[in-house]
Specification:
Blueprint: H1 2-25, H2 30-41, H3 44-49, H4 56-72, H5 76-89, H6 94-112, H7 117-136, H8 142-150, H9 166-176, H10 181-197, H11 201-220
Helix pairs in contact: 1-2, 1-4, 4-5, 5-7, 6-7, 6-11, 10-11
């Protein structure tokens, strides 16, 4: 019951954040913002996350705040604090946080022909936080998650090592990619629309970042796309 209440509160706050994002994108068009918010809030993934005992609904709020900061071009240190919160809440989001910082480095170098070393320090700090959580809390790594999801569900993680070959991994991955056709088609269509409609290089780079992270998530956590 406690988890359900927390998820419902997170669901409500996420709706408010979504509405705020749409008011930024569509200024003074509150009916459009409200309509889009309701449509997204009623989508099956959203309603499902509001009812299950996982941190997905909670991390979604961090991602929405991140989206607000990205749209409004917040200070890089404020964005770093948001990325820190994302990594602390869900360590498996480390590919997303690091790839965002990498995109910032690439964009700044493309624009000013210089590397911002503060961004490198931020990336190192996020990586250290991730390693600390993994080691200190004995957090199961990707190899353990993949083994338990697709090969054998061990009653106790320490009972036997998570050993599998590259051939086994690729075989499982190729079987799961069958379910990924619709996601790929929609993602490519949206990416093409962004490149066609926008002339902002930062927007285009960010779209590529999101597109790449879909496949990063698939490669490492393909169970999410297997149902």
């Amino acid at each position: 019951m406690a988890v359900l209440v927390a998820s419902l509160i997170s669901y409500f706050i996420s709706g408010l954040l979504l509405f705020y994002i749409f008011t930024i994108i569509f200024p003074q068009k509150y009916l459009i913002a409200a309509g889009l918010t309701i449509v997204i809030a009623l989508l099956p993934p959203m309603t499902y996350m509001s009812r299950v005992s996982t941190p997905d609904m909670f991390i979604f709020q961090f991602l929405l705040v991140f989206a607000i900061g990205w749209i409004k071009r917040w200070n890089k240190w404020i964005m770093f604090l948001i990325l820190l919160g994302i990594t602390f809440t869900r360590p498996d989001y480390i590919p997303f946080t690091l790839s965002y910082l990498m995109s910032v480095i690439v964009f700044e170098y493309y624009k000013d022909k210089k590397i911002d070393f503060y961004i490198l320090i931020q990336g190192a700090a996020l990586l250290c936080l991730y390693m600390f959580i993994i080691k200190f809390y004995n957090y199961p790594g990707w190899k353990n998650l993949f083994y338990d999801s697709f090969i054998y569900r061990r009653p106790t993680i320490s009972a036997q090592p998570a050993v599998f070959t590259i051939e086994e991994y690729l075989h499982i991955l190729l079987n799961k990619i069958i379910y990924f056709k619709k996601v790929s088609l929609i993602s490519l269509s949206m990416l093409g629309a962004v490149f066609y409609l926008s002339k902002d290089q930062w927007v285009k780079l960010s779209a590529c970042l999101i597109f790449a992270n879909i496949y990063i998530k698939f490669i490492f956590f393909s169970t999410f796309f297997g149902s």
